[in-house]
Input
Amino acid sequence: MAGIGPPMLLFGVFIIVPMIAAVVLSFVRWNGLGTPKWVGGSNWAAFFRDPVARTSVVVTAKVVVLSYVVQTPISIALGLFTAGKQRYRTVYATIFVLPLLMSTAGIALMWESLLDPQFGAFTALARSWHLSFLQQNWLGNPSLALYVVIAIIAWQFIPFHTLLYAVGRRQIPVVLYEAATIDGASPAQLFWRVTLPQLRYTVVTSGILMIVGSLTYFDIIYITTDGGPGYTTRVLSLDMYNAAFVQEQYGYASVLAVILGVIGIAVAVGLVRLTGFASMASQQEGAA
Amino acid sequence: MRPRFRAGRLVAVILATIWLVIVIAPLYYMILASFRTQGTYLTASPWLPTGGLSVSSYSTVFGAGLGRYLLNSVILTAACILLTVTISLGAAFRIVRRTSRAVSAAFVVMLFGLAIPVQAIIVPIYVLIYKMHLYDTLFALILVLSAAAIPVSVLIMVSFVRDIPRELIGAMLVDGGNEWTVFRRLIWPLSRPVLATLAIYNGLNVWNNFLLPLVLTQSGNVAVLPLGLTKLEGLYSVNVPAVMAGVLLSVLPLLGLFFVMRRQVMNSLGGIVAR
Output
């Protein structure tokens, strides 16, 4: 049996080596051809001077915070709802999963045409129902585009987090609810005193996945707005993509990549600490 | 049941139904739009199935190479599933048996890999693939996407293999079996449901991945579906029905799979993190 060798080889060559290389590249100037030139910290200095980078940091922070604030309560509510055993809730749960099956590219293209200011579906509603506020240049209006993108991202990811919360809710022992009800707990008390505390691991896991996911979010923004209008939806990962594959400044792109990676690792280490993956304790051992 | 409970339940159903509409409405719009022609798309209502329906968009996208993209996606996904599932099961067995200190160290390194977003290492990956003369090949995508799936796969497999009672393994070893017998007769048959979970989870991720094909390939004959869809859009930017038909066709295989094994897919997606 091959054991640990093959996955380590694959993982080493395509994940570990690039990770080290990203750090090294952040100290060189290189356009992909020719020899890389060592430039010390000048790429890093350029990052801190670059107004576009500063905008990207702010836009990325907005995406992360708003995604979390929007997605978490909706996912919890829908997760608790779909965890119920009634037949109709299974039907709801099944339909809720559908966006998860779509590729990000598909979702982006679908919303792009739906939101089209001339022929889109909202514009049609605006005309036939005389609701003029529905007629907007959703993805082209600088004060709207970012929020529309965040809404599309929520449409894509809420299904996944709903599933997580549904699974978490089903694992809560029924006796806890029975005991609390006998003690006269109201539905609100059941939620705050039993459900939420019991879901704490799910809250942490889902929260970290949301944060890391939206921190590095790329696909939908790249396809729908490509960072525009202006720089209003230009997130860090898009900035990095442009630096590397449009402007061919691999050194500067690597600075952005390292920043993304470091924040991602910092957040995920938090996950490991909080949920105890590192202790290698299995679910069964933990439950005993 | 007290009335307060019943009112709460009604509110819950209403809110859930609102979300149901939010999920279904865009999908319905897309399906309807895909059955328009370029002409009727501009004139007919985007919400009502009146004003003429047609399947011409579907033949348009197949003419534009969607069949090729579909085939590439199938090859890529199947290869990645096969590769990650087999090697991570073998590795998990080793890690749990703790055959050496190096194995445990390797596991910690892989756990660390869970934290690395692929965006952060895409530039060196591109350079590496280019230097290996693998740029613009499906093989490059197979290698990188499998590598990216290893941490989560190994973690899931480890937590599963660990729950297999040690006494069972011990008994087999006492009865004269070697490690290979244990793996083949005990671990492999027991782990088939988990393997299905992993295959579904990884398969969905690979099938829908966009960034890696975008960076590592360029020509149409190695384009996978998500990338191919954007190529369609570039080709037919004014032909929305064709793009919608393409998106819809790219979901159909997964939708088919989903309805055949709904429970397994949902458990797999929800359970992958809960485990």
